[in-house]
Write a structure and sequence with these properties.
The chain folds into two domains: 294 residues, Zn peptidases (Aminopeptidase, 3-Layer(aba) Sandwich), CATH 3.40.630.10; 136 residues, Aminopeptidase i, Domain 2. Helices cover 27% and strands 23% of the residues. The chain contains eleven helices and 20 strands. 42% of the residues are buried.
Length: 473
């Protein structure tokens, strides 16, 4: 690049008028890069222990209470400076710091669920000298990603007497793992002729759960009985307890650095726990804020946000109504939510250099260029999305620019090729301003997603700047 003295008139004009598209890593001071890497270490530890929505919420509660937040059930009234949270069934949570402007709310919403394998109601069977479990996948996955992938088990079951039994098997190095074996290539000629979504089908996602038979010639299903014997002796469970249990299988992969320079993070569940962690940390770390600030951690986004703990539920209305009662402000919940400013903190797809054809390269996010502020998501024709107004987009740009936070924008795929939903459309239905802001990622919805540490840190800084900004749109 020419120096300022040697630049032509048109070079200077180009510099003034063109969008600057460059890596967020450029011109970082050593101490700034050190902060990014240190922040990523904390993030990796968080997602290692947050592989299901229940574990994630439990982890969030522990972190909140360590930082002075109280369960709202233990709080009679609320005043500026108070920190509290409301937990919905261990799967959705809203955490809040009350501001001086008690009637003004800033909300950052993310989701704690990720694609996974759930069990069918009656999953256990025996075949070919193995005990296996039948699964029903949750969320949008490429089913072939899940074969030959070591898995771990998390969830809860209940005995007939009503005793809750937490199950966590496979997360530790010395614990057994589980697997769905794929067909060997020598015998896969017909399988390999199938379309990608049929190479491995949903009914073929059967997990190897046990192998050793009970030594009794009078028992027909010897391995199944031995498995149930183990579960009964260790946990007090019987086969019927599977019918009412909530058991989830997730990849037994620990978060790791990616690349020779360690500039990226590879891990399961980064969609959307990267935004969960960054918005949680921003809520805790922000030093000053005039408005009330909220981090909303919702469930069920990967299956459409339906259900009692999804963003389609009345959780936000219930929370807001309780906030109004305990602060004593003269607002209805409709008025308060309409007056709220919000961010849907979710990830977007990054340009993969191997598969460029599915994206418009001028309108896609790139790893390492900072957070992506996306005006809309959805699918062709802008279906199933929120479309933020220009005034709010300008507000987001000002926050990023004033705080020197690297940012970009784009779309998730070509118009009639890609797309995807977030909770933005469920937040915006209350009349509040909302826009999607989060890091981009490679291999989204796979068993090991990849993000840039620079983008992760940019998200944290942006959410914190949003929380502390005192101006209206």
């Amino acid at each position: 690049m020419a120096t300022d003295q040697k630049k032509t008139k048109n070079q200077k004009l180009q510099e003034k008028l063109f969008i600057k598209k460059e890596s967020a890593w450029l011109d970082l001071k050593p101490e700034e890069q050190k902060k990014i890497f240190s922040f990523a270490d904390g993030y990796k530890e968080f997602i290692k222990n947050s592989k299901t929505e229940r574990l994630c919420i439990s982890n969030i509660v522990s972190i909140l209470e360590e930082n002075g937040f109280k369960d709202i059930r233990k709080v009679k009234d609320l005043k500026p400076g108070d920190r509290f949270y409301k937990n919905f069934k261990g799967k959705t949570l809203l955490a809040c710091r009350v501001g001086e402007n008690i009637e003004n709310i800033r909300l950052v919403g993310s989701h704690v669920d990720s694609p996974r394998l759930d069990l069918k109601p009656s999953p256990l069977y025996e075949d070919a000298e193995m005990a296996l479990l039948q699964t029903h996948y949750y969320g949008g996955i490429k089913k072939y990603h899940w074969v030959n992938q070591p898995l771990e088990l998390h969830g809860i079951a209940f005995t007939r007497e009503g005793k809750e039994v937490p199950l966590h098997i496979g997360a530790e190095d010395d614990e057994p793992k589980f697997i769905i074996p794929d067909l060997l290539p020598h015998l896969a000629q017909e399988q390999m002729k199938k379309n990608g979504n049929k190479v491995v089908e949903g009914e073929e996602l059967n997990i190897v759960f046990g192998h050793i038979p009970i030594n009794d010639k009078d028992i027909k299903e010897k391995i199944k009985l031995n498995v149930l014997k183990y579960l009964n002796e260790k946990y007090g469970l019987v086969e019927e307890d599977f019918n009412i249990a909530e058991l989830e299988f997730v990849p037994a992969v620990k978060p790791m650095d990616i690349g020779i320079d360690g500039g990226m993070v590879g891990a399961y569940g980064q969609d959307d726990r990267v935004c969960v962690y960054t918005s949680l940390k921003a809520l805790i770390d922000v030093q000053s804020h005039t408005d009330t600030i909220i981090s909303y951690f919702s469930d069920k986004e990967e299956t459409g946000s339906m259900g009692d703990t999804g963003a389609e539920s009345f959780a936000l209305i219930t929370f807001t109504s309780e906030y109004i009662r305990k602060t004593g402000i003269d607002f209805t919940w409709e008025q308060l939510l309409e007056h709220t400013m919000s961010i849907s903190a979710d990830v977007t797809g990054a340009l993969d250099p191997t598969y460029k054809s599915v994206n418009d390269p001028g309108n896609v996010s790139y790893v390492g260029r900072g957070i992506s502020i996306e005006k809309y998501g959805g699918r062709g024709g802008k279906y199933s999305t929120n479309d933020a107004r220009a005034e709010y987009m300008q507000y987001m740009r000002r926050i990023a620019d004033e705080n020197k936070i690297p940012w970009q924008t784009g779309e998730q795929g070509k118009i009639d090729t890609g797309g995807g939903g977030t909770i933005a459309m469920f937040l915006s239905r209350y009349g509040m301003d909302c826009v999607d802001v989060g890091p981009c990622m490679l291999a989204m919805h796979s068993t090991c997603e990849v993000t840039s540490k620079a983008d992760i840190y940019s998200a944290y800084r942006f959410y914190m700047a949003f929380f502390q900004d005192g101006e209206d749109v």
